[in-house]
Give the backbone structure.
Amino acid sequence: MSLLCAEGPTAVEALSDAGISLLWHPALSRETGAEALALLQAVEAGEIPLDILCVEGAIARGPRGTGRYQMLSGTGRSLMDWTQALAAKAQHVVAVGTCAAYGGVTAAGGNPSDACGLQYDGALPGGLLPAAFRGRAGLPVINIAGCPTHPGWVTETLMLLAGGALAAGDLDGLQRPRFYADNLVHHGCPKNEFYEYKASARELSDLGCMMENLGCIGTQAVGDCNIRPWNGEGSCTRGGYPCINCTAPEFEDPRHAFTETPKLAGIPVGLPTDMPKAWFMALASLSKAATPDRIGRNAVADRIVVPPTLRTKK
Amino acid sequence: MTEGPARLVMGPFNRVEGDLEVTLEIAEGRVAAARINAPLFRGFERMLEGRDPRDALTITPRICGICSISQSAAAARALADAMGLAPEPQGALVAALIHAVENVADHLTHFHLFFMPDFTRPVYDTRPWHGRMVDRFTAATGSALTRAVAARAELFHILGMMAGKWPHTLAIQPGGVTKAPTARDRARILATLRSFRRYLEEVLFGAPVEAFADLASLAALERWATGDVALFLEAAADLDLAHLGRGSGRYLSFGAYPLPEGPVFAAGLWDGSRRSVDPAAIREDLSHAWMLGEARHPSQGETRPDEDMAAPAYSWCKAPRLDGRTVETGALARQIVDGHPLALALAAEGGVRARVAARLLEIARTQLVMETLATGIRPEAAFMARGTLPRDGAGMGLVEAARGALGHWLTIERGRIARYQIIAPTTWNFSPRDAAGVPGPVEAALEGAPVQPGETTPVSVQHIVRSFDPCMVCTVH
């Protein structure tokens, strides 16, 4: 449903304009029951070509490997079975969302339904489909990971595929499209000035950087979330709550409360990506000592209480 | 598909949220009995056990990509209840606004994407309205759908601003909301709402929203002649949808948008007159669910799937009952319980037309509610109260999702979640039979539905099922 938030133009228009016709979508298509089943059977039989198979949601393998926790209604077959059958016919297979990519929240806790992703089981390669699986056009499963996914990530991936402009090198090490996965959530975060001085929020609704206390891992999480807006002008950190790394496998089980930073001897565990630890520690203590009063006070307020000093001509 | 003329299995049943299978027994051209299967089990309640209680705010919204904020709101209230914390009044107001945006968007999505496209089917191609339906409501691409989806996306700018994104926000917290709106934010929210009003008045209602919100009788409803609403009413009259798929007449609402002075839409049970709801009288019956254990109150409930999927069970959905009886929940129930005159007139009708008309009524009324809430934002106020979670305790969070009454029940032991139970609106409406053999509300409403010769996926059944707007992913969770 997040796909329907696409704007300029809407999702259906964007795909149609790119020459993509929707064979069947569980929320959008008219065909239901017998009509839908006939269509799926025709695809499985190879009578209707399938360019792109998009799968939302993790695949349940339980109970006991039967897949019966998730049956495709009216067919007597599991989603596990259907997805394997249809993936074998598809030019491209796309996992939409972190659940379909890696298992995601559906695999949280004890993973009650024994769920996995299409080509990953958590961070381990090989899920419903083996690690060696390739779509007929030669690519592995394309993981549009995110919980939720940005509607632009989905429409743009599909537009690139339709235009023959997405190659294996355009996917990162976890098979995510690099056009969004080469960025960090930290990029463009409006709390960057607080981050620079380690001026930290103490509680949710404080304006300061949420890395030190509130579990934010935007400096390690991939995504262009703060570069392109969500729903007009949003992002998690703009909304006042931490990035929980929802584009990554196993984000669902961080082994600490999502909104609390785990610490060792008072120092947060987990460093910004590509940052040497000694330098980070040195810079952090230096910048913390140098925090301007304005930034320090605003960091622990829910609104700007000290505006920037106006520059005056000398 | 069919196993002889007397039995039909309908699926994949699309244009509902999630997975749904309907099995019909047919006799003399009518549905004699219906069984609803929610064929997906994921076990969210089990995933929460052993976690930090605050994690419920991250995990439960992800049950669903359509009612995500409703799950947030219920989790936040359950935690606040356990903490003995009242949210800051202005925090509650912003949370209500965020929630109202999702609910009204769900109604819009349901009407345009899920419900109306059935009228474009070839089975109706001799009807006088069919051509206009095809223009406006062809699945995925109809002109009304495109406008509605664009209006919804723009309305969601309020969520981008106040909730960070949609779905799966962490903005709603037990003590209020994580972002304090500025005067500029308030002005922008009001501008977005004016734009949404313009869409509603130019396209959906074709008249001022107040005119629809003020309708007070069935006769006045039937005289409504503008916008896409009129097209629905024309088809509904032609096909006699008023008398299709009647419910039990018992309606439940937990009360929508809690503010310090009380909910914006009242809480209660209606069965001819309004009474208060006693949540202690809820039991989840497991006799026909693939679940092990006994019928219990959700505060003592458990979720242990039966891996053998043994008969007579036929669904992963439990069967909640209030005082031992089925109840219908949703926009119709909410507006009846709130005492709106048109809804009270629709209460006795209780069928497909009533459910859809009540959703339209609620779109109009919620636009007015959102405008009042946004106008009431005071940027100088506090938006978040602080509290602490008990090491041992319990909490209950009752809210109204678009589809109706949603409850979370939480037990905390030694600082961790020991038990978490959820009853979603569709759990009530799409529940299977109980130990007494009484069918769930939709199962009962389907009895008597006409089935034409040769129909494998009876269109009357589709109208009835979609009139309830099921969210199947929330149902079992």
Observations:
- The mean pLDDT of chain B is 97.
